[in-house]
Structure formats: C-alpha cells, structure tokens
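Both lines are given unchanged directly below:

***
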Amino acid sequence: MHTQAIFELSQEAERLLQLSLQNLNVLKTTSFTAQQDVNYFTQFQNSSAAPSKFCPRSIQAQQALLQNELRKITQHEMVLAIVGTVKAGKSTTINAIIGTEVLPNRNRPMTALPTLIRHTAGQREPVLHFPYVQPIEKLMNTLQQRLQQTDRETLTKHLEIDRDMSGLLTRITEGKSFDKHYLGAQPIFQCLKSLNDLVRLSKALDVAFPFKAYAAIEHVPVIEVEFVHLAGINDGHGQLTLLDTPGPNEAGQPHLQKMLQEQLAQASAVLAILDYTQLKSVSDEDVRKAILGTGSSVPLYALVNKFDQKDRNGDDEEQVKALISGTLMKGTIEPSHVFPVSSMWGYLANRARHELALHGKLPEPSEQRWVQDFADIALGRRWHRDDLADKDALCKAAELLWEDSQFAAPIKTVLHAAHAHASMYALRSACQKLLNYTQGVEDYLNFRCQGLHIASQQLQQNIAALEGDMNLAAASQESANTVARNSVKQAIAAMGDFISRYEQQINTHIEDYFLHATVPEKLTRQGMSFGNPRGVDFDTRNETLAFDDEPSAQIALHRIRASCEIILTAAQEKMTEELTHLFSYLEIELAETLRKALKPIETRVAQGLTQAGFRTNISLPVFHVGLLNFNANQAFNELIEEHDIPVAQLRRPAGMRGTVARWLNSDEWGWEGYTVMQSRYVISLPDVQNKLRQHVADFLLQLNQTMAAQIDISVSEGMAAFFAEFSQALEAIRLNLQQSLLARQQNEEAVTALRQQLQQCVRTTRYIHEDTRLLRDDIQTLFTVEQQ
C-alpha cells in the first residue's frame, strides 16, 4: 500500500475541493445570481422547466455535494450505495454482504430512510447511532396531536395495523421518543421497523415525513458492525461504508425518486440489486433509470438476485451478464461487474458458517427461524433434528450452499477491493465530481461573459429569436410525433409479418418431423443443447402409439418432446437475431427523425445548446432473448391417455370337464374363451401435433402483442422526455439571456466589475479543472499499480 502517495493525493484533492467551494461562494454573491434566484422562482415556480444550475439554491446543493466529497476524503471513506426494489431482496443481500443479519426483512418496504452500515473491525455486536433524531421527534409530536383527532376505526380504513404498527401507535400516544443509540440486532430491527412504519402512518394521516432533513448523508442513521468477510483483514486503507438507499416510489412515496438520485450522487460507487425473475419489470426499470442518471461519475456493479430460481429455459450466467450490460444498462456497466447470485443462499450459508465457527453448533430452529430455512435448503426438506448435531456435515453443507450461491465472486471483486482501496475509491469519486462541476460552471460562466459583451438591443433580438425557436420546437414535436407514430406502426406491422412467417416455418418443420419421425440434420446442428445424432422417434405408419405401461409411454413422449424442442430452439435463435436487427433499425430511424425535426432550431441556437449542456438521448426498447422463451412443457401436458381395450383370454371351465382336463394336462381341449378389459397407454400423434401448433400460435401472438405494446409505450415516453429536455434547455438559455440583459442595463462601472469578477471565476475554474484532470490521472495510475 502506497500510504505516502495516497496521503499526498488526498491533500491535493482537499485543496481543490476547498478552492471549488470558495469559488461557489464568490459565484453566489454575483448580482445576476441573486436576481436570478428571485426572478426565477417567482416567475417560473409553476413552470415545468428545471431550475438553473447556478441560482443560489442550486449552488447550495452543489456546495453540499462537494462538502460531502471533502468529508469522505478527510475520513478516507468509500461509500458503496446499495439500490434495489422491494422484491429484489435488498435487505437479504446486504445481510449476505455483511455476513450476519443487521437489517430486518419484511414483505414491505424497509428503507424509507437511507441507512449507513459501516465496517468496524472488532464490533461483533451491531450498534446503531441516530444522533440527528430531532426531526423525527417533531414528527411524532405532530402525529400525536393528529391521532387525538382520529378514531381507530377511521385509521384502519387507510392503514394496515399489525402488531408493529399497533406498538408504534402506543409509543406515539405515550410520548416515547427514539433513542440516539441502539445496541444489538433486535433493538436495531425495532428502530428501523418503527421508522418505516412512521412513513406509512404519516401518509395515512396526511402528515409530511421529514425526508429533506435526512438528505445530507451525515444525518442518516449509522450502523457500525464488523463485516464477517472482512474480519481479520488489516491491509485496507480507509473506511468502507454501505449506504442502504430507499427504492424508487418505496412506501408509496413517489418523491423518494429524487432522494435516491441525491443519495447516489453522494456515493463513491453503486451496487444495484436486480431481481432475476423481474428483469423486465417496471420496478426494476425504475432502478435502472436512477442508476443511469448518475452517468459516469461513479463505478457501477450489479447483483442479479434469485438466480437460484433459474430453470432450464432461463437465461444462463453469460446471457444475463450480456443482457444487463449491453441492453438494460445501455453499456454503462461492464459484464465483469454483473454477478448472478442467490442472496438468500449466501445469507443462510454465511450465518451458518459464522455460528458454527463461534459456537460449534446452530441455534434451536424453534428460536431462530433462519436455522430451519438453512436446513431445508442445505440438508433437504426431510432433514431431522439429529442432522443438526453433526457439525462436520453441517460445515460441509454450509460450504456447498455458499458455493452454490455464487456470492464468493462479488465478495472478492467488490467488497474486498472496496475495503482494500477505500481511500482510492473516495479520491476517484471526488475527482469525477470535481470534473463534472468545473465543466458545468465553466460553460455557464463563459455564456455569462459573452452576454456582458453583447449590446442590450442584440440581447433583446436574441431573446425574441429564441422565443420563436421555442414555438417552432413545439410545432416540430407534433410533426416528429406523427412521423414516429408512423414508424412505430410500420415496425409493428413488419414485426407481425415477421412472426407470421416464422410461425409458418415452425409449423412446416413440425409437420416434417411428424411425417418422418426425425428432426432434419440442419436443425439438429443449430440446437446447441441437442448436438448428438438422433434416430427415428416412432413408427410413422401408425397415428397412435400404444404401450402396456405408463413409464414406457412417458419415455416415448419425452423423446418426441426433445425433438420438438430442437425445432423451437433453432427458431428461437434465428428470431432473436432478426428481431435484434429490426429493433436497431427502428431506433436509428427514430433518432434520424428527431435530428431532422430539430435541425433548423439546433442550427440557430447551437452555441446556446452547447452552453446549456444539452445532449440528445432517447431510450428505445432493445430486443433481447428474455422475450423469447419457448417452453414446450406446457404443450405436452395431458397428452398421454389411458384407454381400456378388450383382450381375449382362455381359461379352464368350472365343473367336471375342467377337472378332467387339468388331470390330463391337455392343451387341446378343456379351455373356454373370455374377454377382459386391460389398460393401455396411448399417444395420439395428431393430437400432439395439433396441441404443439396451438401452443406455438398462442405464444407468438402473446409475444407480438407484448413487443408492440413495449415499442409504443417506450417511444411515446422517450419522445416526450426528449422534447421536455430540449424545451428545458431552450428555457434555460432564454433565462440566461434575460439575466444578461438585466446586467447590461446597469451602469458601465457595475458591468465592468461584474465582468472582471466572472473572468476571475473562469480562470479559477479552469485552473481547478486542469489540476483535477492531472490528479485523476495520478489516481488511476496508482489504482492500477495497487491492483496488480
């Protein structure tokens, strides 16, 4: 560890951060900035346009961001933000990362307030610090008054009152406030559960929860505990802290999306928890959008939880990595930073290994539920209590479960690396934030300086022209939307024709298979999972296959099913390739439509757009293999029929004749014929073929409808967001021009002083930017050396 080099780089980062904060203070005192704060928030408070990045309120937010980076630098702290939806298993994943249970796990949102979890060597028993509890105490006083005016029956109409909520209501009524410190897992659980229930209660009683009071990272609750995976590792330099963030729209609070963005902006790196079973869901899409909003300012990692639920038709590990990296995350995350895992298995294996190492045995299952969950998974659902007495077998089972969870890879790649290089991560994060800040402020100041050199009359003309451009943009949006809708219709029609063509092709292959009882060699080679040579599956001379016993019928049906899956797999691979090209073409065509629609405006205000930082960005659905999942099992259900058929038999007749025949042991006489009903297991090949054809038709129809809806919705939302961003950029330029006009209307001495002040700020900003760029290069060089 290059301790001296890290110290010197930290000193340089602190100097640049301090200089940036001073520069922001100077910028805040400029005359047009103060005017902008008054004028903007009185004139545009009901407008959809975004506030200026350099009004006093926004400057204060930027100062808070840089102050946070300064705090992390001085404390050598790397903050790894954890973000995910409720159903993704975020709390379970954090417990698995830490190695023991520090966060409660319920089937409802559990992170209404951000929570820091700091690795503290030697702190075996977790402790929660909540020093900034005053806003919560004020809230509870307000809720106490509101509860006095609300009867219990009315409250139950808007709120589910379980045991935890009932205890919270009693606590509020009795005036018991939150403590500033909690020691032990159970007291911490109760505190965090109560905080989250406070959010639900506040919403039911229409009382504002003080989220803004906890926007600063130093105000949120902090849990200190030793991470099991880092115990005994002393080669780290700096402090590693996890930040458990609220999910988008968690607890029914839509404005948490903004809080999430603010928290992510303060992190040194981001770890996304995605649900393998819900990768295409709206909730996971919200998380991805929040992460993409951070841009390149922080490194990104992703854990794809619930990978243990993968079946043989699901995407494998490499497919999941490619899907998330290239499609869902738009190339902003490397495939090597995506880890399919089972957080529950990892957590249970960790917990068992930890208990066995400390106590040599597991707790009683009746006392701690996780033991039963561990035994069910690791030992099988038919385990006995005696199995828990075999320490060696339990250790082996825990190790195997840990291996199956696939959690070792992210622990090594993310957790160990973050711990070993916490100071480096903090430095790299600070540099990126500084570069983003200096680029934005330099563009803004250059625009302001140019405005001070332009005559008032020219500024008025520019404002009038820009207002005309804004009207033209609105008209262009209508025409662009019309062209986009036509493109979407054409794409959907082409996709329908494409799917119809493939349906015919699949049916042709199915008919050919049932005609010859074998899959064509070309398709056999395409089906990667079925590369071995295959023979004839059944006798083509018969339309039905009959068997004396059900197992034989099942084997024959399985052979037919495997052959049909070769046909479907080959079609799936080809469809995936062609639909990918179709969607890519649509995306390029729509981007070209937008470019043509806005080219006249962009030409006239290109300089203004550049200064405003505007960039074209429209997100269209990209086809991926997750939409194509032919599951032939459903098509083969209930295809074996049990038939009773008459079978001729011979038997000895009763009476003297039969007795004499048995004495003589004759095969010639003494027998009589009779008929019995015997079970036969019959497979109707036409029924199999028809049901398979219907399955393919239903699946492709659903696929067509799903993709058409996705294209329509995504394009509509993307176009709206695109033009909203474009309009905001034009509005920001107009506002800047108006403020420049106000500045020009001052006396020449004031304008000269303002110009000199701005020029000094520009010089300082350029100086900070250049030194920060050099610092970033030095940090990256040292980071590379450290990782070798």
Remarks:
- Residues 456-635+686-743 form one domain.
- Confidence is low (pLDDT under 50) at residues 34-51, 527-532, 608-633.
- The two ends are 11 Å apart (CA to CA).
- The longest strand covers residues 672-684.
